[in-house]
Structures are given as structure tokens and as C-alpha cells.
Amino acid sequence: MSIKVFSGNRMIDTVKGEVIKKNVSILVENETIIAIDSPEKISKHQAFTNSEKINLSGTILPGLVDSHVHLIGFGDGTPGDVLVKTDDNLLAINGAQNAIKHLNSGVTTLRDLGAKNMSGYMIKEASKRNIIQTPDLIISGRPITIIGGHLNWFGEVATGVKECVASVRRLIRDGSDMIKITATGGSTGTSNTRVPSFNYDEMKAIVDEAHKFGIHTAAHCVNTEGIRIAVDAGVDTIVHGRFVNISGVLEFDEKLADKMVENNIFINATLHQGRDRIWQLQAKDESSLSDLEKNEIEAFNIQWEEAAKIWEKVLNKGIQLVAGSDASWQHYKLGGTSFQDEIHAHVSIGMTPMQAIQSGTIYSAQSCWVEDQVGSLEVGKIANIISVEGEPEKNISDLRNIKSIIHRGRVHKLFD
Predict the structure, then answer these.
(1) Average pLDDT over residues 302-316
(2) Could you read off the pLDDT of 159-169 as tens digits, one per residue?
(3) What is the pTM for the complete model shown?
């Protein structure tokens, strides 16, 4: 039995959205938090005597929860249509390395929303066997898609209600913890971003079958009709959540938003996915930028301003955004501060720093159906703990200043 006491002088309560500005100690038995209290009271606990005492500098908060990654991606600009041609074994090895990088950045739980064939399951199996140490993994496996639809080359294509039901059962057999659905087209060349992919009866069949087996769903949606069908079918999280009408114009849908609030449906907005590419270009010497790259920056800035107006309406309506990076997709690499950058982007569209922290902890955990285990520091939950230098509830950039990472009660990293 391993008993540890982690102590510090300030801690964020992500449930209440408050900072505890006094000395606090967290008593951990093996992987589980068994008490949180003042150092004086913890010292009187029967388990304290034989415990290992560890001081955590800075602000203590729960380990981060990235609700949307693609572990097998390279993040070097390789498009999905090319990525899929890579050997599955290489993809799994790359994915394992990405998972390790994300843990090293303070992400202690992640949800992988789509991998080719069996590669995602193999990464989780390697972690389960302690071949690699990764964050806690929630794996969708192959996304369910239509013929020619977004991510169709990942291997789970379905047409009609019967095939949709069979796909869910097949994914559960293979080891899926949840179901990812591509409800609209996306970056896949053969897909169509203007219209929904699945019909309502197909989407409803997927969601109902997943819920029957006690697992949740997330649907990639980059147009309003796709969102509508997913919401009507009972999908749990909308990914991207672009309110784009049939003409390709951003147009907020008040009634649809009301229904999302009523049904407690989350949006994983993936705000930083495109912005990261622009940051990379802006870091270059301006004289070295091609005309194409300059146009890319200009076009993104216009789109960002237009999208920000819609996100303001989403937040005002009361729809809960959850943080999910969508790395390593296209130019967006996993690890480093990639997930903190996604949380930072939430502040850029109007969230307070505390709300953004909650979006990457407790609310992201709720979206992943693991809030009973992670996302906050509470008795009975898994001891996934980080600390950062500074006061991130005031300055969200401080969330990048990782000082310590505790994963399942084990000290993963203590930084000087």
C-alpha cells in the first residue's frame, strides 16, 4: 500500500470555480484521494504517520482532461487523406509517443476521437500492460461514417439502420469506450461539409445502441443541419459545432441552441486547431512568408472575428463548452502546451480564466462521462493532480507553467 500526502498553499476547486487560498493537504492511498483538509487535520489522520510527504509549489488543480485528440496524427501538416496511407504499426507507435507527450504536459485524461483500424486500441492495450505510461485513455476506435464521408478511410462505414447498429456492436466488441460519429463532412476530400451525413433514423440508431450499452457519443458537426440531426437523435457532445447554413454562411440558430441547453449537450469547439497553424506562420520572419501563407493568415483572422460573434451567442445562451484540442491533426502537435493553448482560446472568445479552466477539467470530464473519477480534486476520485506556477484563474497563460504532475497517485514529474 502506498500512502502520500501532497501539500500546497493554494488550490483550485473546479466544481465551485473557486480558489482555496490557504494551506491544504491531499491524502492519497494508492490511486485514490481519501482526504482533503488543512495540514493540521490531515496530520491527525490514521494513515498520515507512514505517508510520504510531498510539497507542491504554485497553484494545485486537477489533472487536465483533453476531450478530443487524434493520437495517431503527426501534427506536421500531413492531411488525413495522406495519413491514412501510413502503416498501422507506425501509427500506433506514433500514437503511443503522442500519449506520453500529453501526459508530460499535464494532461492526465484524454479522449481519442478516431484512429485507423485497430491502432487506437493497441495504444490503450500497451498502456494497460504498462509498456508505456499514458494519461487515462478513453478510446473511440474507428469513427462511424458514411460511404465517402469524413474519415471514411479509418474503417467503419455504415449505411442504413441495420449497418449503423452493427457498427456500434462491432466497435464495442473491439474495445471502444465511446462512439464517435462523423455527422457531416470535414477535411476528408470525398466528404461534403454542406449537408448532413447520416439521416435521422441512422443517427438515432447509433446513439440508442451506444446508450443501451452504457457508453456515450460525440458527433463531428460543421453545419447546422448536421447539428440538428445529432441533437434530435440524442448525441451527448457536438464536436466543432459550426452553425453554418446550407449556403455556407455562419448563422446562429436560437431554437437549436435552446434545445442543446435543455438537453445538456456539450460543444467541443476545437478553437485552437486552426489558430495554431496561424501562430506557426506568424512566428516566421514576415519576409519569408509566401503569398499563399499571407493569404492564409488574412483569411483566418476574418473567419476568427466572424466565428467569435457566434461563440459569444453560444456562451450567452448557456451552452457549456468543453476543451478538446483536436491535436495531432494537420499542423497541431500534441504535447508541449497544446492543450493549454486550447483552454487559452476559450478565454479569447469571452470565457473567464476560471470558466476556461473548468472547461478543461470538470466539464470536459462530464463530456467524457468520467466526472465521477476525474476533473476535480475530491475524496473518492483518482489522484490526478497538477500544479502550476502563478495564478491561472487570473492569468490563463500561467496554466502553461507546469511545476508538478501526479498521475494516479504516482509522482510523474516534479519540475525545478
Answers:
(1) 95
(2) 999 999 999 99
(3) 0.96
Kindly report, residue by residue over 368-414, the tens digit of the pLDDT.
Answer: 999 999 999 999 999 999 999 999 999 999 999 999 999 999 999 99
User: Which position has the grid cell 493532480?
Assistant: 385
